[in-house]
TrEMBL record:
Residues 87-100 have a biased composition (Acidic residues). One of its GO terms (molecular function) is porin activity. It holds the Pfam family Porin_4. SUPFAM superfamilies: Porins (SSF56935). It is a multi-pass membrane protein. Residues 7-338 form the Porin domain. GO terms for cellular component: cell outer membrane; pore complex. Residues 1-20 form the signal peptide. Residues 85-108 are annotated as: Disordered. The keyword Nucleotide-binding does not apply. InterPro entries: Gram-neg_bact_OMP (IPR050298), Gram_neg_porin_domain (IPR033900), Porin_dom_sf (IPR023614). This is Putative porin.
Length: 359
């Protein structure tokens, strides 16, 4: 049973790609169109009424042109409809007024990139896109509230290289361009802006036995920031994450752990720790159940006492595929947040039923 990293981590996207419609295929050029309509009905926050929301519906265009000898040029564009809850794990109460309203939001460019691919080497792309760190998270099986990847998994200006696979191994590198302006003023805002960042990722997949596969991934990233008063680096984030997953027949189980250290003016100010445990079981061919536990902890290093905030998130869900193009699901999430030195825990329950139609 061949289980690749991509198939395991982006199953929904793979289904979309498999259903892509080829709208042009001539003289070495192929253009494909795909996408999905995603809606969810539920309660998305403790201070909100039940609501019907868009869940990151999207339209995807991909093009490639064969240059010969295994080399091809490629391009991609993704239009995503924002508003309400979405697949990037943003909650409605952290969004702006337009996105947390009852509307389905306006379309915006989510990805726009171009590049080259060589069969025996890998793929090099430039533009607004996901980074290779996005693939480091292996065991987020949830549809809405899952995931706690502490690496930067996407940005507006990314140069990305993802290697071909050799004996189960592959790797990736990313460079993130930040704000290009060097104009500064003494009265400027001190809000941090990305100056530049870079990251590396490593992947390994192997079939250990019949119906038994092992997947491993690791990532490391450094991100530097300045502000409108200076071009010097005033803050730096250093992040790493590791993931391990076992797949046995219809069952998958994985553990992920990562840390991010924050520094301001070379002084360590904060440490974030992210643990994720995920499991999935294909009960019958069209239906699976999944569980997830997250433990997200922030330590404020400059505070001598009461310097920790710990969040635990518990997620349970199930889906049913009417066909490879139509998936419905139910999902429940409960979070508890404990601030050191405060007796009471903050608790929140969320639940939703969703429908996704791929085309």
């Amino acid at each position: 049973m061949k289980k690749t990293l991509v198939a395991l981590t982006v199953a929904a996207f793979a289904a979309t790609a498999a259903n892509a419609a080829v709208v042009y295929n001539q003289d070495g050029t192929k253009v494909e169109v795909s996408g999905s309509a995603r809606v969810a009905l539920g309660k998305f926050g403790k201070d909100q009424r039940a609501d019907l929301r868009n869940d990151g519906s999207r339209l995807i265009f991909k093009a490639e042109h064969e240059l010969g000898n295994g080399l091809k040029a490629l391009a991609g564009y993704e239009l995503r409809f924002k508003g309400g809850v979405d697949s990037d794990n943003d909650t409605p109460d952290t969004k702006d007024d337009d996105e947390s309203s009852n509307t389905f939001g306006s379309p915006e460019t989510n990805k726009l990139y171009a590049g080259l691919a060589y069969d025996a080497v890998g793929t090099l792309t430039f533009g607004k896109q996901a980074t290779t760190a996005d693939d480091v998270s292996l065991s987020d099986f949830a549809y809405i509230w899952g995931g706690n990847n502490n690496l930067v998994d996407a940005d507006n200006k990314v140069v990305k290289f993802k290697s071909a696979e050799w004996s189960g191994f592959s790797f990736g590198t990313d460079y993130l361009f930040g704000d290009s302006s060097k104009q500064r003023t003494a009265m400027g805002a001190t809000e941090l802006k990305l100056k530049y960042g870079y990251g590396v990722s490593l992947f390994y997949t192997r079939d250990l036995a019949e119906d038994l596969a092992l997947n491993l991934a690791a990532g490391y990233g450094v991100y530097r920031f300045d502000n409108e008063t200076t071009t010097n680096t005033v803050a730096k984030d250093t992040s790493w994450r590791t993931s391990a997953q076992i797949v046995y027949g219809p069952a998958s189980f994985g553990v992920e752990y990562g840390q991010t250290g924050h520094k301001e003016n070379d002084v360590k100010t904060q440490t974030d720790r992210s643990l994720l445990v995920g499991a999935s079981y294909q009960v019958i061919e069209p239906s699976k159940v999944y569980l997830q536990w997250q433990r997200n902890q922030t330590k404020f290093d400059q505070s001598p006492v009461d310097n920790k905030e710990t969040e635990n998130v518990y997620i349970v869900g199930a889906d049913y595929k009417f066909t490879k193009n139509v998936v419905t699901f139910v999902e429940y999430a409960r979070s508890t947040t404990k601030v050191e030195g405060v007796d009471n825990k903050e608790k929140e329950n969320k639940y939703a039923a969703g429908l996704r139609v791929y085309f």
